[in-house]
Design goal:
About 5% of the residues have low confidence. It is globular and about 60 Å long. The chain has 318 residues and is mainly α. The longest helix has 36 residues. 57% of the residues lie in helices and 10% in strands. Helix 10 runs antiparallel to helix 12. It has a two-stranded antiparallel sheet with strand order 1-2. It is built from 16 helices and 4 strands.
Length: 318
């Protein structure tokens, strides 16, 4: 039981009660309490520019974007505490997930398992798309020439992020797949590569490539046949991937690029926020980013989201 009998403590508790967005008390294994508080300080997030741009009719939508910021912050706090708990358990000699203890060994060797699949029904094709079994990378595959020529699978010319287009079509036509979880060569990360370079205009190509993917789906009759599955796929390659680019590839996230992205997504996939696969196929962090499609996001809020995205990657890579 927590008691506040000091006048200063009571004043603090009153302030918390008036301004807190979220309060939660959890009991730890050592018997101690953790008191989680999310404080709704608008002045820390809302800039003068935001105050000028947020009209009465936008206020409700703007507050929804702030709630997303707070939810992301709380999620990141939970993940940090989870990792710290795992480290403490490992140091104490307790059992922890094998993936955590042997991650470096796993990265070097792989498991050696071979996954084989024959995609001979529409249901199996739906599962392949939703689970993203093949991924979009091209460098890690050996592909029969006939699969490409017979189904007109080529790279779009003059655009960056062309692997997205190529891989998206590949998963629609591949009928026999063998996936080997074994490392045969090392892929070195080039910080000056097309994808990782910063402050370059061609990062906007990712939106053009995905628009082309959707157009090709429609022309080939695939959009109607696998609508929910391909919509989920585009939420990853179009919306979430572009949000990642906006947050990580620029010193200041380009607000115009985000607005254009949001406009394109809602125009082409108006019901995407209700896609039936979101809750089972997306990480919680990505589900929170999906909320930005339904609220008013100001430039300063987008900057806060970008900072939280960088924090998320630091946690996820540990």
């Amino acid at each position: 039981m927590l008691e506040f009998d000091d006048s200063e403590d009571m004043s603090l508790l009153k302030d918390i009660g008036e301004k807190a967005h979220y309060c939660c008390i959890t009991t730890q294994e050592d018997g101690k309490f953790h008191f989680h508080v999310m404080i709704n300080y608008f002045e820390e997030i809302m800039s003068e520019e935001d105050e000028e741009n947020v009209f009465d009719e936008d206020e409700k939508e703007f507050k929804k974007s702030l709630e997303t910021v707070y939810d992301l912050a709380f999620y990141l706090t939970e993940q940090r505490e989870r990792l710290e708990m795992i480290r403490q358990r490992a140091e104490a000699g307790d059992d922890v997930p094998v993936k955590v203890l042997r991650r470096q060994e796993y990265i070097v060797q792989g498991t050696g398992k071979i996954y084989r699949a024959v995609i001979d029904t529409e249901e199996k094709r739906r599962q392949l798309i939703v689970e993203n079994t093949m991924s979009y990378a091209v460098w890690d595959k050996v592909i029969r020439r006939s699969l490409l020529t017979e189904n007109e699978i080529v790279f779009p010319e003059g655009l960056a992020y062309e692997d997205i287009y190529f891989g998206s079509l590949l998963q629609l036509y591949a009928k026999r797949i063998a996936k080997m979880d074994r490392i045969y060569y090392h892929y070195f990360v080039n910080q000056k590569s097309t994808v990782l370079s910063r402050e370059t205009g061609y990062h906007k190509d990712i939106m053009m490539v995905n628009q082309l993917v959707l157009q090709t789906y429609q022309e080939r009759g695939m959009w109607e046949r696998y609508h929910d599955e391909l919509e989920l796929d585009l939420l990853f390659t179009w919306y979430l991937a572009t949000v990642k680019v906006i947050c990580l590839r620029f010193d200041k996230p380009p607000y115009d690029m985000f607005c254009r992205l949001k406009e394109d997504i809602l125009a082409n996939m108006p019901g995407c926020v209700n896609n039936k696969y979101i809750k089972t196929s997306m990480r919680e962090f990505h589900q929170l980013l999906m909320q930005l499609l339904t609220c008013y996001v100001t430039p300063s809020v987008l900057c806060r989201i970008a900072e939280q995205y960088r924090q998320y990657l630091q946690i996820d890579q540990k």
